[in-house]
Amino acid sequence: MSARIIDGKAIAARIRDRTARRVSDLRKEGITVRLDAIMVGNPEAGTIYARSQEASCNEVGIRYHFHALPADSTDQQLRDFVQGLNRDPQVTGVLLNLPLPDSVDAAALQYAIDPYKDVEGVNPANIGMLFYDCPIIAPCTARAVMEVLKETGRDPRGLHAVVVGQSVIAGRPTTLFLLQQMATVTACHCETRNLQAHTQSADLLIVAAGVPHLIGRKHVKPGSVVIDVGINRVPGPGGRTRIVGDVRFDEVAPIAGAITPVPGGVGPITVAILLQSAVEAARKQGGTRRVID
């Protein structure tokens, strides 16, 4: 048996095409989609992020504004800046680039973003509404996982899904999505005993632990769907780093039914979903302003 390799770039391209059409449709209705990105400190990385994000936005017709704020900005100054974006009717989406300086309360800053402008879906209001299956905007990475699952054609209803890793932006939202689609879900994390015993029985195995090559052949049930969310930098030849996933692809691909590569799997889909979320944010706001004070 050899796994079907899920082409994340192809899925992302289809999402971007659909997003571009929606941006055009909204423009005809007099609605301009605009995404404002914030970077606190780290100007070198910020420049790289800005160029990449701007290029992605330009591709689908989204207006992009980048704000580089000083590393020594206080929590109050940052919250005030975010509130200014919340109140600006021309801003339809706000993106907070990570990591933030240690001195910044990241959770408080994310909470300050208007849930209707929270394109990443990480505001506690959006995370909380996910429990009721009605978030304004859902977390992008978890949505990307569900796009992969849709691509496989595998109906999660009644299947045993194992989610390894329970972060608030990937593992936990994915667990909730799967429960809502009537899968039987096992949530694994760093304190799980005998991880292999859980993963070996999974029809759907989603790995989002952030641990390079955590999952090998012995962990995987033959014919299962394996979705690797991990993006890890490890030493490579010549002193350079390379990107690997949480799954040992070469070991698992020969026995899985379907598998995502890293890079080229969930990553590009997540970026495309972010753009899609920016469009959804603009559409849902309409003429109503929602501001968190």
What does this structure look like?
With 293 residues, the chain is of the alpha/beta class. The chain folds into 2 domains: 29-128, Rossmann fold (3-Layer(aba) Sandwich); 139-266, NAD(P)-binding Rossmann-like Domain (Rossmann fold), CATH 3.40.50. It has 10 helices and 11 strands. The protein has helices at 8-28, 43-60, 75-87, 106-112, 124-130, 140-152, 171-180, 195-199, 249-252, 266-285, and strands spanning 4-5, 34-40, 63-69, 93-96, 160-164, 184-188, 204-207, 225-228, 232-235, 241-244, 258-259. Helix 1 runs parallel beside helix 10, helix 6 crosses helix 7 and helix 6 (140-152) crosses helix 10 (266-285). The protein is globular and about 50 Å long. The N and C termini lie far apart (56 Å).
Q: Say how many strands there are.
A: 11
What order do the strands of the largest sheet run in, or round the barrel if closed?
1-11-8-7-5-6
Overall geometry: globular
Look at the structure and give the mean pLDDT.
93
The CATH class of the largest domain turns out to be Alpha Beta
Summed up, the helix count is 10
